[in-house]
Design goal:
By secondary structure, the protein is of the alpha/beta class. The protein is built from 18 helices and 13 strands. The chain has helices at residues 2-8, 18-41, 45-56, 59-83, 98-109, 122-134, 147-163, 180-199, 215-222, 240-246, 269-276, 297-300, 342-345, 371-408, 435-444, 470-486, 496-504, 509-523, and strands spanning 173-177, 205-209, 226-230, 251-257, 282-286, 319-322, 335-339, 350-352, 360-362, 413-416, 423-428, 450-452, 457-461. The two termini are 38 Å apart. The modification N6-(pyridoxal phosphate)lysine is found at residue 326.
């Protein structure tokens, strides 16, 4: 309760009578105690959400929330505006020279974070850039005019399928998309339409673990699908007992991660497949992160035990997503969505023959697509080859293993997730070390880490570009923990209170509305 009051405190801006304040605070305290009991009893999430909604709709609380939100957004706006230049709102009267434009581009690029690159090989970057420029004018929507990039796309899809359990005589097929989110959206919409056509399901539901990628929320919202979220087991994998309880005749798809974005955990896809077999629903495996690492993990991983099977070798897997712009080392945005067969993929297509523009067919959610992105993806695959990706996987998994070991030696921190993948996540097990404050201190040191909730945690996604810096990270982690435990830290533009509020008030519309306000600030348009 004290934490919540601190988050919403108005620094004496209200002059209410003491008795009124006391009454309100007691009401809030009782409500929060009830919420704690609800959590302790593990009552259904819907009831807990309802209790939070009841609390946030109290007039006094609603007023406090709105004021607090405005203060948070204003603080982020000040921080953002101090780092960025003025936005030009109109075209210049006359065009600028190439030299002037390039100087401005370099100046803007230098303001970006230096710690988020997926690759360290400058040669492949230059190759992809050159190849993109050769095919920048092409558009695979017009395959008769640009057969070159259509050929390249077919090869990319076939290579991805062969890496993910496909055989030469399989019917596995797919398309390139703009990124992992589009691949996931495409697979879910296709599965919905397929299940409606073949099983007559008009009230579709899909099941996913709370660790599944946020794209599932987009899909549920866009395509009017009821999203059923289930918990994870002690290893961080989708809970099989809970899945069995939630399966029903309206479920069109179960979503599995290989691995999950938050903690790098590989769901037990084989056990999920056994559960859904009697129901006949689709099974999507999100391998956006793992698609170019896990195929080599069995041979070059830092431990002897087998990684769980997750791909098309499992007959019940109907679709997969893999990001070529992550560990495939192509430039943004490039991803592949794969389907078990062509009959399923046809439900991704949009065919129109009744408009005045003639016959129209589009294989994906986008109409026109960049042939340049397809070409540079193809070039990256050709550049690395199987040996190149195997070497990358070996280096990343070995680095992940070392980082996990080093973090485990810091007594205030605890590793999350059991699988050694490219993601290393950790939380605080020390009441004197706020994980969000730790993130603020590390941010001041130049680190850009991903912030997690439920439980509060941080993670680093290991790439070939950041492997050389991991020893520095361990040193900085130790220093940051000591600094926080001493109480001698004061970080400018600290975000810990914001993350703390989000974690306390998770699963309500409060934080969602706050995020939308922050996005408005970031867009600045």
């Amino acid at each position: 309760m004290i934490q919540l009051i601190e988050h919403f405190a108005l620094d004496g801006q209200f002059s209410l009578a003491a008795v009124v304040v006391t009454t309100i605070l007691c009401t809030l305290g009782i409500t929060l105690l009830v919420l704690r009991l609800l959590y302790a009893l593990e009552i259904e999430r819907g009831l807990k959400y309802a209790a939070f909604n009841l609390l946030q709709n109290l007039p006094f609380v609603r007023s406090l929330i709105q004021i607090r939100k405005r203060r948070v957004v204003a603080g982020i706006a000040d921080s953002t505006n101090s780092q960025k230049t003025r936005i030009n709102t109109t075209l210049t009267q006359q065009g600028e020279t190439v030299d002037v434009i390039m100087k401005e581009c370099i100046r803007l690029r230098n303001s970006d974070s230096k710690h988020t690159n997926m690759m360290s090989d400058s040669q492949v970057f230059e190759l992809c850039t050159k190849v993109y420029s050769l095919f920048a004018h092409t558009n695979p929507l017009h395959g008769d005019a640009f057969s070159s990039v259509c050929h390249m796309e077919a090869e990319i899809v076939s290579i991805a399928a062969s890496m993910l359990g496909g055989k030469s005589d399989d019917d596995i097929c797919g398309n390139l998309t703009s990124g992992g989110t589009e691949s996931i959206l495409s697979a879910i919409r296709t599965s919905r339409d397929y299940m409606r056509s073949t099983h007559g399901i008009n009230r579709p539901e899909m099941i996913a673990a709370v660790s599944a990628h946020a794209a599932i929320y987009k899909a549920a919202d866009y395509y009017n699908i009821k999203l059923i979220l289930i918990g994870t087991d002690d290893c961080g994998r989708l809970s099989i007992p809970e899945l069995k309880r939630k399966l029903n005749r309206n479920v069109i798809l179960v979503y599995a991660s290989a691995p999950s974005y938050p903690h790098g955990v590989i769901d037990s896809v084989e056990n999920i497949a056994k559960c859904i077999e009697p129901w006949g629903c689709c099974l999507h495996v999100d391998a956006c992160l793992g698609g170019f690492i896990l195929p080599f993990a069995r041979n070059v991983g830092p431990r002897n035990e087998e990684y769980p099977m997750y791909d098309f070798k499992i007959p019940q897997v109907t679709s997969m997503s893999v990001d070529t712009h992550k560990y495939g080392c192509a430039q943004k945005g490039s991803s592949v969505v794969l389907y078990k067969n062509r009959d399923l993929r046809k439900f991704q297509y949009t065919a129109v023959s009744s408009w005045t523009g003639g016959m129209y067919i589009s294989p994906s959610q986008a109409g026109s697509r960049s042939g340049g992105l397809i070409a540079q993806t193809w070039a990256a695959l050709k550049y690395f080859g199987r040996e190149g990706y195997a070497k990358q996987a070996a280096n990343i998994l070995a680095a992940s293993h070392r980082l996990r070991q080093q973090i485990s030696k810091i007594s205030s921190l605890e590793i999350l997730g059991v699988d050694i993948t490219m993601v290393v996540a950790w939380k605080s097990n020390d009441k004197d070390v706020d994980i969000y404050a730790l993130n603020d201190v590390l941010g001041e040191m130049g680190w850009h880490l991903s912030v997690l909730h439920s439980p509060p945690a941080l993670h680093l996604c290991i790439t070939t570009a950041n492997i050389p810096t991991l020893d520095v990270l361990i040193s900085d982690l130790n220093a940051a923990v000591k600094r926080i435990k001493s109480g001698e830290y004061d970080v400018q533009n600290a975000r810990a209170p914001i993350y703390g509020m989000a974690n306390l008030m998770s699963n309500t519309n409060i934080v969602n509305d706050l995020l939308k306000d922050i996005q408005d600030v970031m867009d600045r348009s």
